[in-house]
Design a protein that fits this description.
By secondary structure, the protein is an alpha+beta fold. The chain folds into three domains: 153 residues, no CATH class; 139 residues, L,D-transpeptidase catalytic domain-like (Beta Barrel); 65 residues, no CATH class. Helices cover 21% and strands 25% of the residues. The protein has eight helices and 23 strands. The strands form five sheets. It has a nine-stranded mixed beta sheet, covered by helices on one side. A seven-stranded mixed beta sheet has the order 5-4-23-20-22-1-21, with helices on both faces. Strands 17-18-19 form a three-stranded antiparallel beta sheet, covered by helices on one side. Strand 12 and strand 13 form a beta hairpin. The chain is globular. The protein starts with 5 loop residues before the first strand and ends in a 5-residue tail after the last strand. The N terminus is likely disordered.
Length: 386
């Protein structure tokens, strides 16, 4: 029997902000979102799930190192790393952290509003074509862009036996996708892609690529002259509610970042947090985290995600229109109107439950999914979400 059904939701706002959008706390907190366990369906891949939850390929693969990305099977537990620590930077314009392959956009705000941040996964420059660090600004926005490859790119494609035209026309065959925003760094763009699997990987010639739905979203709200800062922070740490959160990403050896083979950068991050002092039993945890480079935001000394057992929910993912569609379905099915916020949740995020068991949750997920013609997953949440 289904327990009283709750719709757990951050208040819905304009559709342009109903993606992975967070309202920042007044105390300049840096920890956002929450990690969840998603149960796959037969035929799912990690790429399918990562895109629906707005996570890049490398993010979800590193978080689930023991799984075959392409052969998950039914009811396989997947850790979706949807918790983030904001980069240590100014909260203005677009901030890109190459180490985590993620973009953060801080829209301008009015005096009576909280600061918002919108975050999306990105693909960046591969070895030999590393995306440059530094500051820039958006100088042009182009819908249906053409692509004019450089001489070096022409030579590369000729060697592969795939010569390019002088100008690649807009359309399905254009690697820039349907939207592009030019940076003041000569030759570099933020753009879409006709190969979404490259988001979350180092595969580009230096440009920054996003899922098609994400670049369309940003294109509609990011004005010309928006500042852009590209930085490299593989280690991050932040204190929230007196709890220390830490994060470590893979080191990109061709980026000018040297840590001497020890954990000095991570420790420096922690020391900068109100002079936080690590206890003796925390040092080993920090060292192990740094060597694993899984990119998962964890509470210090908590090796596994603290998931609430035997409490089941369903979730429709983090795409821009998912929340509104879930609310509509619940209304059509007449399953109650109990609204209250998820701690650390994204704006517009919808969580439905709790259910007595996994079977009941899956039955409801399939029912709503059939109505909406979109995947709805059974999930478990961490204890600090509710």
């Amino acid at each position: 029997m289904l327990l009283p059904l709750y719709l757990v939701i951050i208040t819905l706002i304009a559709p342009s902000l109903c993606a992975t959008t967070f309202s920042l706390p007044d105390d300049n907190g840096r920890v956002l979102g929450h990690n969840i366990i998603v149960y796959s369906y037969e035929g799912d891949t990690l790429l399918d799930i990562s895109r629906e939850f707005n996570i890049g390929y490398r993010e979800i693969v590193n978080a689930n190192p023991d799984l075959d990305p392409w052969l998950l099977g039914d009811e396989q537990e997947i850790l979706v790393p949807n918790r983030f620590i904001l980069p240590n930077s100014a909260r203005k314009g677009i901030v890109i952290n190459l180490a985590e392959m993620r973009l953060y956009y801080f829209p301008s705000r009015k005096e009576d509003q909280r600061q918002m941040v919108i975050t999306h996964p990105i693909g960046v420059g591969r070895r030999g074509w590393a995306t440059p660090l530094g500051k820039a600004r958006i100088i042009q926005k182009k819908r249906d862009p053409t692509w004019t490859p450089s001489l070096s790119i022409h030579q590369e494609y000729i060697k592969k036996g795939e010569p390019l035209p002088t100008v690649v026309a807009s359309g399905p065959g254009n690697p820039l996708g349907a939207y592009a925003m030019r940076l003041s760094m000569t030759g570099y763009l933020l753009h879409g892609t006709n190969k979404p699997y490259g988001v979350g990987l180092r595969v580009s010639h230096g440009c920054i690529r996003l899922f098609p739905e994400d670049i369309e979203h940003l294109f509609s709200i990011v004005p010309i002259n928006t500042p852009v800062e590209i930085l490299y922070q593989p280690y991050k740490a932040a204190l929230q509610d007196d709890v220390l959160y830490v994060e470590a990403h893979e080191i990109q050896e061709d980026v000018d970042f040297r840590d001497g083979g020890n954990m000095t950068p991570m420790v420096a991050e922690i020391i900068n947090i109100q002079n936080y002092v690590l206890f003796d039993n925390e040092w080993q945890f920090i060292e192990d985290l740094g060597h694993r480079h899984q990119g998962i935001v964890k509470i210090v000394n908590q090796r596994d995600i603290d998931v609430i057992e035997n409490v089941w929910f369903i979730h429709g993912g983090m795409k821009i229109n998912a929340a509104g569609r879930m609310v509509t379905a619940l209304s059509i099915l007449d399953y109650g109107e109990y609204f209250f916020p998820i701690r650390y949740g994204a704006m517009g995020e919808v969580l439905v439950g709790p259910f007595n068991n996994q079977k009941e949750a899956k039955h409801m997920a399939l029912k709503i999914g059939k109505l909406l013609d979109m995947p709805i997953w059974v999930i478990k949440v961490s204890s600090d979400v509710l």
